Structures are given as C-alpha cells and as structure tokens.
Amino acid sequence: MELNDLETLVRSRRSIRRWQDKPVPVELLTRAIDLATWAPNGGNKQNWIFYVIVNGNTIRSIAEEVQNSTNLMASWPEAAQFVKDVARWRERAGFFRSAPAAIAVAASQYVSEADRILSAREKTDLQASQMRLWRNTANTKIQSAASAIAYLLLALHQMGLGAVWMTGPMQAKGKLEKILGVPSEMDLIAFVPVGYPDENPVVRPRRPVNEVCQIIT
Ligand SMILES: Cc1cc2nc3c(=O)[nH]c(=O)nc-3n(C[C@H](O)[C@H](O)[C@H](O)COP(=O)(O)O)c2cc1C
To answer: For atom 22 of ligand 1, which residue has the closest CA?
Structure first.
C-alpha cells in the first residue's frame, strides 16, 4: 500500500448517520473487528469485547433506551437554559434506530503492576497518590479500546460501509449493558451503528497541522 492510498482512506472517512435498508454481512463486521484487534493496546491485554448486533429489534430497543434517557434529561429544570440544544438532542437521540447493524464496545479494567504498587501506597505517600492520579488521567482502558475503534472505523470504511463512533448512548449505559448481556466486570464504552451509507456528509474541517503540532528541538 502506498502512503497516498492510506491518506485517501483516512481523509475520505466520514461519520455516517444514515444507512441504506440493506443488511450487512456478519463476516464483514467480524473481519473488521479482527483488524481492529491489531490496534496497539495497553500491555497487549486486549481488554475488550465487541458485540455485533444485526438484530433490528435489539438496535431499536437500544435506541429507545437512549431516547428515554434523553427525554428524562430534557425534562429536568437544569435543562431549561439549553432549550435549543435539548430540542436538538431529543430529535436526534435515537437516530440510529434504522441502522442495519451496530457494534458495541465494552472494556474491562486495566490494572498494571505499576497501578498495583501505587494503589498499595497512595494513602500514605503523596507522591504515589500524585502518580496514580496522573496515570488515571491517561486512562489505559479507554485509550486501548479507542485505538481499536479508530482501526475499526477505517476497516469498515475500506469495506464500503459507513459508521459513527458514539459515546452519547452511554448515558443509558446500565440499560444497554442489560440488553447486550455485558458482564459486570466490563464497561460499555462506545456504540457504533454501521451500514451501507445513504448520505455523503460534508467534510468536518480539521485544524491545520501547524496549529496542532509543536516541534520540540
Ligand atoms: C469519542 C467520540 C465520541 C463521539 N460521540 C458521538 C455521538 O455520541 N453522536 C454522534 O452523532 N457522533 C459522535 N461522534 C462522532 C463525531 O461527531 C465526529 O467524529 C466528528 O464530528 C468529526 O466528523 P467525521 O468523523 O465525519 O470526520 C463521536 C466521535 C468520537 C471520537
């Protein structure tokens, strides 16, 4: 593969939120997940599970739970100051109910030897507690799963599929975990509806590289 090909793949991927009414072969989804598992991940613990959902009723149940939790949030007095945003969320919350497939990603705790040392010492040693805090802000569990999701989206895109990485549905996490049967030691961290694209969204621009890049010499 030439660098140009990779560049084209990366630059042409869009978040897709409308899909054709056409089933997605499970083999394609599992092949994309297989590729995603080659993503770099903390300690190579591969502490993830990918739930492949091709049952429309299950996707609709998930969308309904997300819609319910959004409606609940919208009903609270604290939401009154964000009327416009709340109205938009309510309208959009369950947009993925029509997706022909979805992949939900769950991750389990990542506990390294360093974490064990620090957690044994943090109560009595300020430096240990600071180090633990710093390590926690760079959460390995989430970063590892996120790295796999980024690979997953590129693999799906190369297959001609369109997907969107979503964390919004996590506001109904408990309900979603119950529907999917996620074990208690794992946390659902993202939901990725997938299908053949039925839209060609405008490019969301990126900040120029010289603005986001600092060369340290
Ligand atoms: C961690 C994360 C969470 C996201 N959550 C949502 C979401 O809940 N709903 C949604 O519609 N898009 C979500 N997105 C998609 C972003 O809005 C999208 O990637 C961004 O606007 C850039 O557009 P592009 O992916 O088409 O380049 C999420 C993306 C990431 C990486």
So the answer is: 204
159-189 per-position pLDDT tens digit:
999 999 999 999 999 999 999 999 999 999 9
- In-domain check, residue 47: yes
CA distance 179 to 172: 11
Give 111 Cα–ligand 1 centroid separation in angstroms: 28
Q: Is residue 135 part of a domain?
A: no
**Domain assignment of residue 58, yes or no:** yes
pLDDT tens column, 31-46 = 999 999 999 999 999 9
Range of the domain at 57: 3-109+140-212
Total-model pTM: 0.96
- Give me the pLDDT at residue 154, please: 98
**Residues with Cβ within 6 A of ligand 1?**
14-15, 17, 164-168, 204
Q: Which residues pair with 163 in a beta bridge?
A: 15, 194
Domain count, the chain: 1
CA of 195 to the centre of ligand 1 (A): 16
| Beta-carbon-side half-sphere exposure of residue 120 (alpha carbons within 13 Å) | 7
Tens of pLDDT, residue by residue over 47-81, are 999 999 999 999 999 999 999 999 999 999 999 99
β-strands 101-108, 186-195 pairing: antiparallel
